[in-house]
Amino acid sequence: xxxxxxxxxxxxxxxxxxxxxxxxxxxxxxxxxxxxxxxxxxxxxxxxxxxxxxxxxxxxxxxxxxxxxxxxxxxxxxxxxxxxxxxxxxxxxxxxxxxxxxxxxxxxxxxxxxxxxxxxxxxxxxxxxxxxxxxxxxxxxxxxxxxxxxxxxxxxxxxxxxxxxxxxxxxxxxxxxxxxxxxxxxxxxx
Length: 190
Known about the structure:
The chain is an all-alpha fold. The protein folds into 2 domains: 84 residues, RNA polymerase sigma factor, region 2, helix turn helix motif (Rna Polymerase Sigma Factor, Chain: A, Orthogonal Bundle), CATH 1.10.1740; 80 residues, Arc Repressor Mutant, subunit A (Orthogonal Bundle), CATH 1.10.10.10. 73% of the residues lie in helices and 0% in strands. The protein contains 9 helices and no strands.
């Protein structure tokens, strides 16, 4: 005896497959951006992977509530909320893994002067450390604007903030970074 699925079962299976395919096409292209954002928020690669995994599970679960628009901003909002929930539950835990920000251009630049490569890595490490030291409110808008290249309006919507607050946090975060680099260049920072 051969089992023949009823048309309703077959339709349900096809609909589920098409929803999954739509989810994959809509959300999976933003995986690296989601990971980058989570990594900057929780400051740990392993924890960022957990945050992104949880975020994608939430995104899949609530994908029916996504009604079009910027899927990247929608996903990053989920990542942000998941990261903040994780930070609330684990904020006393010390973060031990450092983020390696080595770029492909430095790794592939075998014909450059070793001194230039070293100086670029030092500058990169100094920027990474300066970003980590920013309060999370400034760090998140800086990462979203400068690394994820979201507009001020997209950041405001994603973080549920007034546009003026986004602009203020960006200005204050940039000012803090400039002050840190100025102190470093004047020899006050070791």
